[in-house]
Amino acid sequence: MNTRLKHFLQVFYRLAQMEMLSERQIYVAIRIKSLLADKATPILDLKTLKESLIDLSDDQVMTVLNELIQKKYLSIRQGQITFSQYFLNQVLHD
Amino acid sequence: MINWVWINVITLVSFFVFFLINQSVFEIFSVRENINWIFLPAGLRLFFILIYRHMALVGLFVGSLLASVYLNHEPLSPFTLLLALASTLNPLIALYAVEKWSSQFSLSLENLCLEAIISLAILQAFFCTTLHHLIFLAFGKTLQENFLGDILAMFFGDLFGILFMMGLLTLGLKLILKSFKPTR
Is residue B79 within 8 Å of residue B137, measured between CB atoms? Predict the structure, then answer.
């Protein structure tokens, strides 16, 4: 592919990838990003995440996480949160 | 050579088709001949000049000329030739202007961002309006009572046309992306 065409399409590709997240989802995603920054593997402890979001109740955190699960951005198993590559590479990046 | 022919054929045909679509779909936004509040082919001009630079000039020129003659029913004359030339050259002038004034913009389009494309769109609309109205003035085709209205309509017509095309491209890519589910 023509490299100029590639650069041009990348601008719109990034634009098209932008997801509409709610304010609370963005807030949780930012916290996830900062917690993952110190980790070698992209797995988070659910309890740690809840504790770091002190201004949200457990129910509110779970509601947001369930919304992100619906979007297939993450999954929770035995108290551990794992993330999709799409979420790690695109959503958190943007 | 074959590549050059293909680029210009694609440019010409797509320009003509989008001119036709613009005339039929956005006819209600037409102010008068040559001036429309939404002008989609302006987006195509910017696209082809950004990607193919001088290689697409012939296609854009012939496309503009054919559209004027066959769709706007204007006679082939120095006036239509000059208008087609101005239409073809204005995105190129905008491109070199942005390249000259912006340190972050490069002609290779590396690190191209949305802001640069919008700057290009605004400059292209400005140069297009200026060049067209200079030609209108030279040939006595300007209606004095609506001079400012025509200028604004042409400027925003090009700008809205480019933004509309950008929106279509984004929407198309969004639909393609939606058909691929994210992997876990």
Answer: no
Exposure of A76 by Cβ count < 10 A (0-12 exposed, 13-18 middle, 19+ buried)? middle
The distance between the two most distant Cα atoms of chain A, rounded to a whole number of Å, is 51
**What is the tens place of the pLDDT at every residue in B50-89?**
999 999 999 999 999 998 887 767 788 899 999 999 999 9
Q: Residue ranges per domain, chain A? A: 20-91
Q: Residue A55: is it exposed, middle or buried by C-beta count within 10 angstroms (0-12/13-18/19+)?
A: exposed
The stretches of chain A forming alpha helices (DSSP H) are 3-17, 23-37, 46-52, 58-70, 85-86
Pick the CATH number of A20-91 from 1.10.10.10, 1.20.1250.20, 3.20.20.70, 2.30.42.10: 1.10.10.10
Residues of B in contact with A71 (CB under 8 A): 182
What residue in A sits closest to B113 (Cα-Cα)? A11
CA distance A6 to chain B (A): 9
Distance from CA of B108 to the nearest CA of A (A): 6
pLDDT at B177: 76
Residue numbers of chain B with a pLDDT score lower than 70: 33-34, 72, 142-145, 180-184
Chain A residues in contact with B165 by the CB 8 A cut-off are: none
pTM: 0.73
The size of the A-B interface in CB pairs under 8 A is: 57
Of B51, B176, B181, the CB nearest to A2: B51
Nearest-by-CA chain B residue for A17: B174
Query: Are residues A7 and B47, on separate chains, in Cβ contact within 8 Å?
Result: no
Going from N- to C-terminal start, the domains of chain B cover 2-179
The better pLDDT of the pair A80, A88 is held by A80
pLDDT of residue B184: 46
Pick B181's closest partner by Cβ from A15, A72, A87: A72
